[in-house]
Amino acid sequence: MAVFISATGTDVGKSFFSALLMAKYGTSHGLKYFKPIQTGSDDDRAAVQSLTGLPENSFLKNYYSFSFAGSPHYASELDETPVDTEELVRHLYSIREEKIVIEGAGGLLVPLTRRFLTIDLVQRSEIPLVFVAPVSLGAINHSLLSLEAIQIRKIDLKGVYFLGTPDDTTEDNIRTILEWSGAKFLGSFFFDSKERVSREKFRTECVSRFDPDWILKDLFL
C-alpha cells in the first residue's frame, strides 16, 4: 500500500521523515520513494537518496519538475507546463496498492493548478495519509486546521508524526493536537532543524532512534 506524506507546509520535514522511513524500512519492505511534483533547484529525490544510500531503482522519477521554487500552480505557469491533474490522479490511483512513499509538495492546501489543491489529489487517488506536524510554538493552529481539512474530506488518515526542534511548548502541543483532532499518534523525532545532518550521522544515529517501537512498519501492509 502506498502512503502519502504531507505536513503543515514547507520546511516542516517531509523529506527528512521520508528518508527515515526509507532508511528504516526501504530494504525490508521493498519501498520506493516518489515525489510527483518538485519545484525549485533543490531536488528532494536526490537528497533522500543521498541520506539513505539506497539504490537508484528505489527512487521513482518526478512526474513534474519546475524551475521556480514556489507553489506548483505558479511554478508550472512560469514554465508554461500546466499540471494535468486528471492524469496525475489516474497515475497515483494506479499505484496506490504498491509500497511507495509519496511526498507532497508543501502543505495540503497548496494548489497544483488554479482549481485543484494537493488535498484533492490525495482524496481522489484514495491513498492513505501520514501527517507530519511541527513541535514548536505555532504547531497547534497549523496542525488542527490541516487535520480538520483531512477529516472533512474523509481521507484515510493513518496518524500524526511529530518532527522538529522541541521547545517549552512541545509536550503540550502534541497532547493538544491529538486531543482535539482524535488522530492516532505515530511517534516523534526531535532534532536541531538548523543543523545540516551528515549522511554518516543520519545512517548511524538518526535511523537507530527512529520508530523504536516499530509502529510504522505496518503502514505499507
TrEMBL record:
Role of this protein: Catalyzes a mechanistically unusual reaction, the ATP-dependent insertion of CO2 between the N7 and N8 nitrogen atoms of 7,8-diaminopelargonic acid (DAPA, also called 7,8-diammoniononanoate) to form a ureido ring.
Keywords of the record: ATP-binding, Biotin biosynthesis, Cytoplasm, Ligase, Magnesium, Metal-binding, Nucleotide-binding
Cofactor: Mg(2+)
Record-stated family: Belongs to the dethiobiotin synthetase family.
Organism: Leptospira ellisii
Subunit structure: Homodimer.
Keyword Ligase: yes
Pathway linked to the protein: Cofactor biosynthesis; biotin biosynthesis; biotin from 7,8-diaminononanoate: step 1/2
InterPro entries recorded: DTB_synth_BioD (IPR004472), P-loop_NTPase (IPR027417)
Lineage, uppermost ranks: Bacteria, Pseudomonadati, Spirochaetota, Spirochaetia, Leptospirales
Binding site for Mg(2+): 15, 44, 103
Cellular localisation: Cytoplasm
Active site: 35
Enzyme nomenclature, EC number: 6.3.3.3
Gene name, Swiss-Prot/TrEMBL: bioD
Name this protein carries in UniProt: ATP-dependent dethiobiotin synthetase BioD
